[in-house]
C-alpha cells in the first residue's frame, strides 16, 4: 500500500500507553474498549490524539497495516480535531462513547464500510458530501454544534435514536439533498435544539417517535421537497415546538401522525404541508392534542384517515384533495361540515366580510361533496351541498353581481337563490317541491272556495251561458235584487251564486275550487276549469290611482290567479330541471 509522508508511524511517536494498545487492537480488527461510558475529561488512561487516530483510520502504514475489519474505539477522549476530509476510508469506523471537545471533519469523505458514532459527543460534525457505503449510526450521540450532512450519500440507514443535538443557536442538523437508501430514524427520546433540515432529501422512510424537536427560530423539522419512497411516521411520543414542514414533499407510502404527542407551532403554523403528495394514507388518528394552525393547501392524499379528535382550529384546506375518507366513527355530514368550519374564519366565510371582500374558499366544500358522492354517501353529499349554498349566501357571494345596482334593489339578486333553497333545497331535496305544491294548492283552493261561496266571485266564462235567460237566477245581481225586494226574507240557497246555482245545467263544467287551483298551478295540465270559469271584476276605472287601490274581492282574486300562474310556471320549470337531473343521477 502506498502511503504519503505523514502516513508513517514514526511521525506520531512517542505513543502513550492508550495509543499503543489501540495500535495493537487495530492490527487485529478487534474493539478497543477503554470504558463503556463516555468520559467527562481527559486522563492518561483514555486520551488518544486525533492525528494518530486519523493515521489508523486511513489504514496505517506499510509496517503497521490496519485490519480490514476497521477501527473500533470505545470510551476514549479524542484530543484535537479529527480531520478526515476528502479521505478514502476502506474499512469500518466505530468511535463509540468517545468525547471530542472539538469537531470531526468528513467533507467529501468516502467510507467503504459503516460509520458508528453512537454514544459519543462532538462539538459538531462537518460531513458535506460524505459517502458511506453502509449505515451511519449516531445512537445516543451528543452534538454541541451543527451536524452538517448536506449532499451526503448513505447506502444504509441514518440513525439518531436517543441522540441529543444542540445547534448552539444554529441548525441542529443540516441534511439538505442527502440521499439515504434506507431509513432516517429519530427515536428513543431523541431531542434537538435548533432546526433539523431534510430539505430535498431522498430516503426510503422517516421514523420519528418518542422524540422532541425544538426550534430556536421558527422551524423545528424541515422536510420541504423531501422524496420518500416509503412512509413517514411522526407517531407515538412525537413532540415539536416550532413548525414542522413537509411543503412540496413526495411520500409514496403513508404519512402517519397516529398517536403523536403534540405539534406546537409556538405561535405560528404547527404543520406546513402545502403542495404535498402522499401516495397512500394520511393517518391522523389518536392524537393527544388536536392539530391547530396547520396547512394542507394544494396537497393530495389517496386516503384521509382521521377521527373526532384530530382537528383543532385555523386549518388551511384550500386545494387539499383526497380520494377517500376513513374514520373510526360513521361518516356524518355535520362532522365534516364542522371540520370545514375549523378553517381560518376568512376561508370559512365566517369573518363577517361580504361579497368581493370575503375570503371564502369554496374548493374544500366541493371536494368534500365530490368524495362523498364517489364513496356512495349521497345523503351526506346533499347535506354538504346545501350547507355550501347557505355559506355562499352568508358570505355575500350570491347575487354579488348586483352590487352595482341602485341601493334598495340589490336584494333582488338574492330572491332566486332563496326561493331555490326553500323550494328544492338547492336541487338536493327535489321531493320538497311536492310538499310546496301541495301547500300552495291547498292555500289557493281555500281562498277560491271562500271567495266563490261567500262573495260570489266566480262565474262561467262562456258568453253563451250569460245569454241564456234560464240562468238569470244564477247571476249575482239577481241575488242582490232579491235582498233589496225582500230584506226580511232569507236568500234561498242555489240562487245568486254561479257556484251553487241549481239552475245551471249539468252539461256545463261545474266549478271546483280544487281543480281550478290545480289547473292554474300546473300550467302543463288542462282540467277545463280555467277556460270555463273566471273571477267577476268590475269595469276598470279611468282613474289609474283609483283602479290601483281597488282591491275588492273580484280584483283580489284576479291578482291571486295571476300570482298562482307565475308560481305555477316557476314550479314547472323547476320540475323539468329536476326530472332531467334525476334521469342522469347515479344514485
TrEMBL record:
The keyword Transmembrane helix applies. The chain crosses the membrane at residues 433-451, 559-582. Keywords: Membrane, Transmembrane, Transmembrane helix. This is Membrane-associated oxidoreductase. It comes from Pseudomonas chlororaphis.
